[in-house]
Amino acid sequence: MSDDQRLSRRELLKMSLAMGGVLLSGPINPLFAQSAGMVPTSEQVMGPFYPVIKPIDQDADLTVIQGKPGKARGQVIYLVGRVKNLKGRPLPGTLVEIWQANSFGRYTHPNDRNPASLDPNFEGYGVSSTDGEGRFRFKTIKPAPYPVSEGWIRPPHIHFKVSTGSSLLVTQMYFAGEPLNEKDRIFKTAEDKESLITKLAPPTKDLEPGSLVAAWDIVLL
Ligand SMILES: [Fe+2]
């Protein structure tokens, strides 16, 4: 199934939700989803900085680059969550890709004109497959805000592309309590803003001291 077809299905379900679930029935019946209390994670634009060339060490740790002794600058965060469907069932084997700016607000991308520093030890892109219970975990750093145009600074956010055989979600995750969130021209377009927010919490004992945990579940249509 092509990405276009998958998006069409998403659009159709959205229409169906708006009409009280009369268009679709079967395994993704939105009436069932609503009764299960599952709210689909909102879409956001892909943006211009999806990697042109993906790094050689494609993994879930963005704070180190294979063969380099250094570590990425910035506040380390563990980004953990589960991917579920509208019925609340976990989705094992889902491909989760993330990409983001570094702790200075710069992407490792040739088209990023922001003069902020590059971080030679920051990967900028990570990929992982969910486990048998639909869980994913990334180690990364909290990205900095960055300017887009006069009067518009994007709040800290992490881009996501989440794909299964039948579903595709492109979105962005934001951090609770950031004053730039509500002013952001992209965040403002979200159908359900709450579905895009994570709240940072202290680390559990098994994680790096001084790190923070960003828990964020994803619900696919
Ligand atoms: Fe971005």
Question: How would you portray this structure in words?
Answer:
By secondary structure, this protein is mainly β. Helices cover 10% and strands 27% of the residues. The protein has helices at residues 3-18, 30-35; strands at residues 76-84, 95-99, 125-129, 135-141, 146-149, 152-154, 157-163, 168-175, 197-201, 212-215, 218-219. Strands 1, 2, 3, 4, 7, 8, 9, 10 and 11 form a 9-stranded mixed sheet that branches. Strands 5-6 form a two-stranded antiparallel ribbon. The longest helix is centred in the N-terminal third of the chain and has 16 residues, at 3-18. The structure holds fe (ii) ion. Fe (ii) ion binds at residues 47, 49, 154, 157, 159.
- How would the global form be characterised? globular
Number of helices: 2
List the helices and strands in order: HHEEEEEEEEEEE
Question: In whole angstroms, how far apart are the ends?
Answer: 15 Å
Give a short account of the largest sheet: 9 strands, mixed
* Parts with pLDDT < 50 across at least 5 consecutive residues: 1-5, 20-32
Number of strands: 11
